[in-house]
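User: Run a structure prediction on this.
Assistant: Running it now.
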Amino acid sequence: MKSIQVFQPEFLLHGADYNYEQWLGYPDILAEDFRLIREAKCNVMNAGIFSWAMLEPAEGEYHFEWLDQLMDSLAENGIRAILATPSGAKPAWMSQVYPEIRLVDEHGRREPHRLRHNHCPTSPIYRQKVKQMNTLLAERYKEHPALLLWHVSNEYGAHGCHCGLCYAAFRKWLQERYGSLDALNHAWWTTFWSHRYTDWSQIEPVDRSVHGLMLDWMRFISDQVIDFYLAEIEPLQEIAPDVPITTNFMQPNVGLDYWKFAQYVDVVSWDSYPRWHSQQEEWPIGLKTAFFHDLHRSYKRQPFLLLESTPSVTNWQGISRPKKPGLHFLSSLQAVAHGSNGVQYFQWRQSRGGQEKFHGAVVGHVSHGHTRIFQEVTAVGRYLAQLGDLVNTCNRAEVAILYDLQNEWALNLAQLPRSEEKHYQERCVAHYQPFWEKGITVDLIDSSTADLSPYKLIVAPMLYMLRDGIEERLGRFVHQGGTLVITYLSGLVDQSDLCFIGDFPLRSLLGLWVEETDVLFTHDVQSLEAVPNNDLGLKGSYPITHFADIIHLDRAQAMAHYGHDYYAGYPAITVNHYGNGRSFYIAARSDRRFLHDFYSSLSHQLRLPQAIQTQLPTGVTAQLRHNDSKQYLFLMNFQPTSQEISLGESDYRDALSAERLRGVLELEGYGLRVLRLDD
């Protein structure tokens, strides 16, 4: 069962999580809310999240009247509803009556009722209860005029349960994967430290020394959460087949394989909480946030939804400063620039109590709209309402970065000679940065499922684990004329986390083999020296840190050599002409300046399309959303001071005022402009 449709809203969404049920005893507040919702130009509200205890306060006793009232009020005010299922937080009575549904930790202890997502994903009882509740919701609201989208649960995570039900399911999963204990023992190399299993019942995922075991446990948990989700959406799809479905993803460090998960949602949505003002400069935070936006657009290569963000602060980051004036508008429209069909917030109204009572909201404890935050949210709503033609346009990329979540899991488990600061995600962002600085759209892709054909350039940083025949697929891509960049710490293990023996699996593609890897302490700095007249015109010396592969060439040509130590003169950057294409190997961790020079030259050679043909100042970036008839250029300034942008010879118009713009455009600090290319 896969997603049923592509979600294409008729307008850009603007709204928030509305915890209506928290305010049932405050009718004056509820009445005022709808006035403020209209004033803030909100056209959608997320409803029913974490509402199970209000919907079913005792087993079999249902109270939908308050939700009926909310849905009717939304419809009367011309506001659509993204209606949630409440499985993310089960009611206390359920934990008491059915203790089986509570999580068990790795020491075999049953967890008490607390927090949220505190359920066993395997429990038949909990699955039955969820199906029952979701059936009632679907039957009751399937034709309600307010209903726009199902929001299934909330922020699924890989909350591993160690109960007998989960262990039995894990062992069944392993039997289906490996077929026999002999195959499993070989894949996990269990003769090391005498860990060989002689019966399936001996397998318990608590031994972190068996990397294959722990990697498969992570895969199983991810698959089990997806299986739980699929069971949860079954009644929604059967009873309301025309209502699209989403669930809110998060940053990809929660242990779920979102590449697999994404195929089962009709629209990818996610919750973005950058830690603004946490660094001396703002643009690196804007850079990483852009990476995550592009990742969520790339899961389905379709527009996504920003389902949660904060209009001001978060309360769980340790330190979270209010956004300075202008930054909320910029950060909200940044999501739209990278492919979101809307901007939504957690939360509409600040809670009076509980864990997130000091989390930011559109309406704070002062309970009125005469605040800077409310006015800035309203400005976003007004702007989005005037960008109606933008909805469902797309971002098209000719360059992709291979960001494999299972590769990251395996690399994190690996006890390398330098296990500190492996930083897989951070290095993917580092390779993304030169394109972001030039306004070149980037897709993120997975190694097991991605279609490589749309791209001219593919970058694969630290591809430690080779799975699902990715080396063959990359080989075909290059042989047919593509350009590939691979870095150090690549091609070391197979998908079972077994080290390759004998020939280097990427040897033919890269035209080289790796003998060993030097790992550098923090105080060590190696250098690479560019070879004269190399393929990319690199010149001079660049510092390198952390990792340095010592390689031998077959057919590849050296573009740079190491500068010193016992491997001085050995190749550090290489190029191999393979079929009709080229593969580059970056054998060491390089700095920002090298990556800028390397990718600038490569982008020029490949004629990668830029959003705007001009040199952008540091901290300023550009993105292009378009379809066959419209092109929207987003210019974004993540500096606190104004910056000048040369528009070149192209004719642009302001997307709202239609003012013709040429020459130089000044972007104020934290400023953003949306332009249309004048046809």
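The CA atoms of residues 440 and 575 lie 23 Å apart.
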